[in-house]
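Record minuted for completeness.

…
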Amino acid sequence: MSNQWNDDGSFRNKPIGGWLHQDHQLLPGNGVSYPVRYMGCLEITQSMRSMSFETRKAVTKQCTIIVTSAAGMRSSSTKKIDKSLTDIIKDTPDMTNAGSNCQVIIDTETIQLISLDNQRSIGLYPLNSVSFTSSGDNDLDFVTIVSKDVIRGRFCHILECGNKSSHDILNTLGQAFELRYKQFLGLAMIDSRAVGNCYVAEPSAPPLTNEVDEDKGNDNNDHKPTETPTEVVHNSTDDFGMEPFTLEGCIGAGDPTNEEWFHGNISRSQAEELLKEDGDFLVRLTSNCIGQYVLSGKHNHTVRHLLLVDPNGIVRTKTQAFNSISHLIRHYVTSGNPIHTKDGLFVLKRPVALANC
């Protein structure tokens, strides 16, 4: 466990006076909100966890300069671009919704941006997809949020804060992450290991594996990955490294959006209804982890569900690793080889096409 966290899941470097809010205010359905202006975002091409802390700070500062320059903010546009970071960040920012006045709503599950003009969501960042936040540029009152989704990739989002509220927003984010981690510790103290393609966690409750729980009373839940505490930093510049709540490697799974057998974010029960005969299969997203995929297939009149991305972000089965989800499916369909699980095996014969459902 990182020395930034106590054994009970508390953040060591929390503000001396304590957090700003009552814990219940940050629970889903409540949330704490602040007025901000969304400035735009810039793509980051490398994993934040692969960088030193100083590099992370430099990257978010550089993103702030580029985005605010594109928005015509003169105090930032006069600053020079750090050419040493050109391999890490893209040149051109995405200015969609730039300049929108919003409420940023923070709870223990998500960071959401709601437009004040039309009350529509213009950004939703699950906490387990956020890898770093900071106060960004020192000259202006900004918060930067680095988040990754399975479709677009990793972006640094820039928020301009009103009334010098960036410090309060960063502290609220720190409190949300601490509460999230404490909730995790309350579920299980986990000693985890990888066994073949089976990610086995051994709390006092029955162990979790990469195979989805077959308990029919828990129809919509898939296996949740463990959250391992690493570096979370709070100092005078208000920076937080959020690796305890991200699965950075999942993007290595590739994007199977255009594959006929990919059904997106459907529940386990919905998947089981679509699998009519032995050999039928489909791939879906699980809502419990950004970028995690589940292979659902039928064999001997029984539907099995298998997570395809291990804790290190590698697409694999028990016997083999693959470059992508599509590579894995192609291999087993073409070869006719069975996929082995702890409860038996199943064979991929017929994809259930989304277009036919």
